[in-house]
Design a protein that fits this description.
The chain is an alpha/beta fold and 266 residues long. The chain is built from nine helices and nine strands. It has helices spanning 44-56, 75-83, 100-110, 124-130, 136-149, 166-178, 233-236, 238-247, 261-264; strands at 11-15, 61-65, 90-95, 114-118, 154-160, 182-187, 212-215, 220-222, 231-232. The chain has a nine-stranded mixed beta sheet. The longest helix has 14 residues, at 136-149. Bound molecules: S-adenosylmethionine and iron/sulfur cluster.
């Protein structure tokens, strides 16, 4: 499906939960998060219906993100259902890796094609600081489990944050080179300030070539990460909300005062 600016939209990113087992400083506010009420969190049946509808409009690439997708119960079953839908050529998931040691193999068996793991430093102490308490050893075990399970390619998302340095990013790149992992680097963004740049080694942040729509963990289509517009599938119905989001895709992102990264999916 083409949007108003003749961009081919074929990619849907779905935030399956706003909950997370980490509290990264650049993702969640210091004062804590106002969680979406349980009743408002998008249900798996809704996700399946959304994806079925999106496929009919040319979406062939789906990524599950969050919050942390692996903390949501039944995620393996959801992947299996999505993998069984005809029309999805690329089924991916973005995770912080903390629970990946136990999930990598079941996810691969369920039909997940590939995975992105976030890692901004390989320094255990800095990681703990940045994530407000995360244990990097679990991420390393998760990466190893993903390699063993045959998920390929494995991409590492590395954000140059206010708390990390170019040297940290460089060390993550070397770690990736040494371990057969692809590395995508990005500079910390601010939704409120509308500051973003192109993802090196990835496809994000390049408005002219943007191919994506988003679905938030409270069931709203978003035309852009940097936009306050949102179209509620429960109020409008899935098809109408999808088409309104497509039609509202801005030529260029501006600002977003309504979301945090954890409920829009990063
Ligand atoms: N919890 C999972 C994870 O961390 O990979 C998935 C959700 S997270 C919101 C998705 C991506 O957004 C991660 O790669 C994370 O580093 C990135 N992200 C979060 N806040 C960001 C920010 N302020 N600037 C740039 N990237 C950010
Ligand atoms: Fe959680 Fe991912 Fe946000 Fe970190 S970046 S707090 S892991 S959702």
């Amino acid at each position: 499906m083409l949007d108003k600016f003749n961009r081919k939209i074929n990619y849907l990113r779905i935030s399956v939960t706003d909950r997370c087992n980490l509290r990264c400083r650049y993702c969640m506010p210091v004062e804590g998060v106002h969680w979406i009420e349980h009743a408002s969190v998008i249900r798996y049946e809704e996700i399946i219906e959304v994806v079925k509808t999106a496929i009919t409009y040319g979406i062939n690439k789906v990524r599950l993100t969050g919050g942390e997708p692996l903390v949501r119960k039944g995620i393996v079953e959801l992947i299996a259902e999505l993998a069984s839908l005809k029309g999805i050529q690329d089924l991916a998931l973005t995770t912080n890796g903390i629970l990946l040691e136990q999930f990598a193999e079941p996810l691969a068996k369920a039909g997940l094609h590939r995975i992105n793991i976030s890692l901004d430093t390989i320094d255990a102490q800095k990681f703990e600081y940045l994530t407000r308490g995360g244990n990097i050893k679990q991420v390393f075990k998760g990466i190893y489990a993903a390699q063993k399970s045959g998920l390929s390619p494995i991409k590492i998302n590395c954000v140059l944050t206010k708390s990390t340095t170019i040297e940290d990013t460089q060390a993550v790149k070397e770690f990736c080179n040494d371990n057969g992992l692809e590395c995508r680097t990005i500079t910390e963004m601010s939704l409120e300030e509308g500051s973003f740049s192109i993802v090196n080694g990835g496809t994000g942040g390049d408005c002219q070539h943007c191919n994506r729509l988003r679905l938030t963990s409270d069931a709203k289509f978003k035309p852009c990460l940097f936009s306050d517009l949102a179209f509620d599938i429960r109020e409008l119905g899935i098809e109408k909300a999808f088409l309104m989001a497509l039609n509202a895709k801005p030529e260029k992102g501006t600002k977003n005062h309504t979301n945090y990264f954890n409920n829009i999916g990063g």
